[in-house]
Structures are given as structure tokens and as C-alpha cells.
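The instructor's notes for this session suggest beginning with a concrete chain rather than abstract definitions. Hand out the sequence below and ask the class to guess, before any prediction is shown, which regions might be ordered.
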Amino acid sequence: MVTIKPNLQQDAAPTRGLLQNSDEVISPGAYTTEDLLTTPAPQTAILSPDRIHAFSVVDQWDARQDKMTRSVYCLSLASTVAAPPVQLFQSSPAEASEIFWMSNDSIAYLSDVSLYRISITQAGKGEAEREHLLDFPVGVKPSSLKYEPTSGVLGFIGMVWDDGSFENVAKKDEAWEKRGHTGIVWDDWPIRVWDTWRMPGKVYTLGLVRLKKKTGAFAGYIEAPKFVNILAGTGLTFDIPVGPSPGCFDLCSTHVAVGCRASHVDYKYLRTDVYLLPLDLSSSSKKLQHLNPEEHAHIKNLKFSPNGKKLAWLQTTIEEHYVEEWVLLVHGMQVGGSSERWTANWDRFPISVTWSPDSGSFYLLVEIEGRYLPCHLVHPGRRPKPLYLDRMTHSIDPLTTTSLLLSISSLNCPMNAFILDLTNTEAATGDENELSPRRMHMITDWSSKHIAGRINEMRPEKFWFEGDEGWRVMGWAVKPKGWKESDAERGKVWPMAFFIHGGPQSAHSDEWKTGWNLALFASQGYFVIAINPTGSTGYGKEFTHRLKGEWAGRPFKDLVAGYRAALNLFPEIDPQRTAALGASYGGFMANWINGHNVFGFKAIVCHDGIFDTTSGHYVSDVPWFEPSFVGIFGNSGPESAYIREVEPDEFRLGMEYAPTGHSWWQRKVSLADELILLTYREDYRLVESQGTAAFNALQEQGVPSRFLYFPDEGHQVEKRSNRLRWNFEVFRWMEEWIGRGKDQK
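After discussion, reveal the predicted structure:
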């Protein structure tokens, strides 16, 4: 049985007035790749300490000059009267990064190694004058800056060599470059992660520096700043080459909390523990308090409560790390304080945590059915209360006890800032899983003039169908530009673009993306279908768990069922003109489908896909990853509950799920599909040889195929100019084999 789940009202009428921030108005027509990549790209709004202002960072790419410009705006949240954002300054992203609030009326940012401060009181009075605060030592590469105003301490993640000194980094970097050869020697893993090679002897650590004041105001340094490696001598480091996440540490007026890996724990176990240290820059002795020694866990989102009396974090056991079973823990900071689990018996999992101003409850973002939804959790063990059920919420901050600042995007609209009024207690619609839209005040509108209404109608629709073993599975449908209700009756049909997400523990979601933007494909005349099969997140623990050992089993069967359900539900889809597109795990599935094409796809797009599971495992930067799903290549160890000795059936399973072991890949079948492969040199997750091997196999058998290669990209295409070419080649390939909608040129 296939059913459509109705959408909530998408466009709540703004009561504060729209803030149109783009002067350029684009004429109506198809929304193109260049339009997508030049659309303003805002980040989440960051709330000031007094909750009266926020700053918003908006990047925009100039395609002609291949140049990205960053604009930083101040938003006023003090009243319900519409007030346009005021630009504080403009620069390139490299010249203004790591922006944070220093006080109620000033922000700071990093430009190369220099830290600057700007007062928001200068907003609207011309280009704001910046004040130089300090310079970080060269080579440290500071990131994840956090400021604690009571103590005046700034925390940061930075790189050091094995002596632990920030001041010696530049000297040791130079010695390394002049070592007389280019060889690099490793005695342990990882050798490389994501798109970066690990430098032996150089690690990430947590640094602290005190920002001094002169006559009550920041005025640069009277004397040279002292940068303290707070983890020196503790045996704790952040040693992953790409650096830890911003939520790996937090500061309060008395303590530092850090989540990192102890030196005795092997990299493959993923274990990170929570440690507490005094916020003392003068003492050489480290009074290290281990808060969760009995847990074999992975940690993120460390946050002290506003009153400094509690510490919260999200934790998942390493056995289930890629099941994303995140549990919220709260630790009392009093002497002998213990930790309490707040969300242990819940089938949905928070992905971020924000304290309430009174330190008594939490505002969570929870992934539910393809959306991140804001929720309020008042008591441990209770279910959080959903506050808004539409679109994708990226950040949540309480303004008052009855209002929240949200940053929200949707599949057809970039991120904007909203105020959610909680005083409107409108009754539910009748469906226990839905709420009526609350009163939403739109604070910013960064992109509507640029988009000019060309993708407004391309809202995703949910549809449900029966998947493998009777499980209910959800998919998204996005109708193409020019679609009409009468298309099926008039015999008008559209080509289908069928998307398969990566992860595999991930989901197609109702959010704005510049890569794999489903609305862009719909604008180009494709009827878009995107299934969230077994293993997808946001549908409960068991639905995700069912993926293990089933990479090409249950998810594949769900995709087949979803494909057929879409054809039955939407007769205006032309079954003779369909294409599959997948990246990462979706790329693995694209290769798998090419040997098991029960769908009848006429074209396949494979981005960073596994071709051979054996070699793919051993050359990957995350060799512990595949065993947790396929169940092969295991190893026993004291903390390896999820990495087991290899059973014969498990090894067989790994070989069985290798695309190379099937169908025409071994010349057993003469039929094949036209396939374009997209591969990148700096992708160390699914290395370039996986793509070249698949391309060689296709060419050897005379199968129409194309190979797109970027020597300067990793697992994801980051450079806008390369994304432009990526989309050009993908659309060119699809048009060659399945065409476009009749209304599209």
C-alpha cells in the first residue's frame, strides 16, 4: 500500500517583514547549476550572550571571477519590529574565519594567524574598525575557538609536535621541510584521513590563552601572550589529521572539559572519553578527572550549563558507533558528582544539545523522518516535546522562555533565521505525529531575489510503501518544473532521477545543499525520487540496525520496492527513461545495481563508489568502518566488542557484496548500463583506484562509460568551479541517455 504523507504548511507568513539582502534580481526561467552555486550561502545565526543580537555569515560565489566573498551581518532580535540586518564587514572566507562573540557588543574573528575584534556598535556607520588582539604562533593552525568571558580565556584546537610547545611549531616545521629527503615513516595508523596525510610526531591538542584588558577594554597585548597546551603531560591528544570537531571541548569559569582519545587506546576503537581539568593557565600540574572511565564510548557536543554547575554531552557506545544511538548524559560538577542519562530509553536520537538559560532543561535537534526537528526536554527519562515539524532546523537557541531563534533551510530554500513563538499552543492536526505550525517570524531572507521563485513549487512530498520483510519505508518525491496534475491523463511523461544516499547510515533530508541538490534536478526537468531504505537514520534504532551484514541485501530490496512504488504512484514518470545516481555508499549501490539491474535504469551516475570490497577495505582511511556493516575483516582485542574474529560466512558475505563478483563485471551477462564514474585523487575514503578499476572494466567490455576526475578534490567536491563542471557532466550524461523533460532545453 502506497500512501502520501501530507506536508505541513511550508511558508508561514512573516510578521517581522522580510529582509531582502541581495540586490540582484534574477529573471524567471529554469534554475541552473550556476544559479545554485552563486546563490547566497548563509551559515547558522549565532546568538549574542545577552540574547539581543545575532551575527550571520553569508558567503557568495562570483562565477566570473571564481571568487568567494564573505559578508558578516548583525541581526537585531530585541523587538518584533522589522529591522534589516546591518553589514559589519566584508572579506574573503580565509580572511574572516572562526567568528565568535566576545561580549554582548563585540565579535572576534581569525584572519590567518591574527585575531581581531569588531564592535557591533559601529554597525551601520561604514566599514567597522577592527582591533588587533593577538597573533597565534605560525604553524599552529588554530580552529574551534571558544571564549569564556568571566576568566577572559580563549580555548582553541591547535597543532604541536611531540614536545607539546606551540611556540616551537614553526621551527620544527622548518626542520621537517629541510630533513634532506621526502620519505615519511609511520609505525601506527592512521596514515591518512579524509583528504589529509598524518604527519608523524605532530598532533592536535587543546590550547588556552588569556585575553588581557586595558582600562576595561580589549586593547591588544601589553606583553607577549602565553599559549598553554593544557593537555601537555596528560597523554591525551586529538591525533586525527583533519582535526577534531568543535564540540570536543568546552570552557566554564572554573574548568575545561575535553573529549578525546587516551594514548593507550588504538585508533580503530574510536573511543573518546570525557576529562575535566581546572581552568588554570599558571599551574604545570594537571589535575585530570576522568568522568566516564567505565564507558567504551564516542563523545561529542560537550557543553557546560550557563550556571557552570553541570556538564552535558552526547555519547554513543563504540559497539554501536555507526548506528548513531546518541544518548544525552548530564554530569554534576559538585564534588563527587555523578552522571545521569537523560535519553536512554528513546527510539530517536539527538544530534545536538543546547541548554536552557536557567540550566534546567534542554533544547535538542532530533532527526525524524528526513528532518532535524527542534524539541524541548524537561526531565530525564521523558520524551522530548516537538516544537516545530517542518523543514530542517540546523540550530536552536532560546531567546526567552517563550521564544527560540532557529536557523532553518529546506530542500528548495537556503538557510534563514526565524523566531519561533512558543506562546501559540494551537492544537494538533489530528495526526499524533504532526503539530500545527507555530507562529514563525522570519528574520532574514538572503536568497529569494536570487532564486526568483523558480524552485518555490519544488517542495518534497513524502510517500510510504512496503519494503523488505514488510517494513514501512519512506521516500521523497520532487516534481519537475512544468509538472501539472493533468500530465498523466494527457499522456505526458517525465524522466526519473532516482537518488541513493551515502552513509550508509544517513538519509535524504528536506534541507538545502549545493551538492546533490534535488530541486536543481527537478528544475532541469527530472521527476526526482529519493528513497531512505533500511539503514537510514531517523526511523528508529531497529530500522538502522537491520543494515548490518546487509549492504546489498535489505537496502537494495527497499530501493527496488520504492522504485516500483513510485512508478505506480506517479504514472507521469516514464519507466523507459530512468537513471540512478549515488555517492559513497550510494556509489557502491550504483555499481551493485549495474550488475543487478532489475530496475531497468538506462543510465547510472557513480560518485566515489566501492568497486571491490576487499581492496576497498584495505586502502580506505577507515578500515574499521566496513566490518561494522558487512561483518568481515574483523580482529579481536580488549575493547573490540564490535570488531570480531572473522567467521567463514562473514568472509563469504563480504565477497558476495563486492560488485566485482557479479553479473557482467565477470562477463557472465552481456547486458549493461551506461555509467559515468566520478573520482577524485584526494579521496582517501574510497580511493581513486576504485573508480579507475570500474571504468577499465566497463571499457574492456565495450560499455558506454565516462570518467570524470578531479586531481584537487577529496570525497566531496568543494571548489565551486569544480562543482559547476561536475553538474555539467552529470546532466550531459543523463541527457544523452534519458533526455530531459519536454519543457526543458
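Then share the key points. Residues 470-612+674-738 form a domain with the Rossmann fold fold (CATH 3.40.50.1820). The two ends are 36 Å apart (CA to CA).
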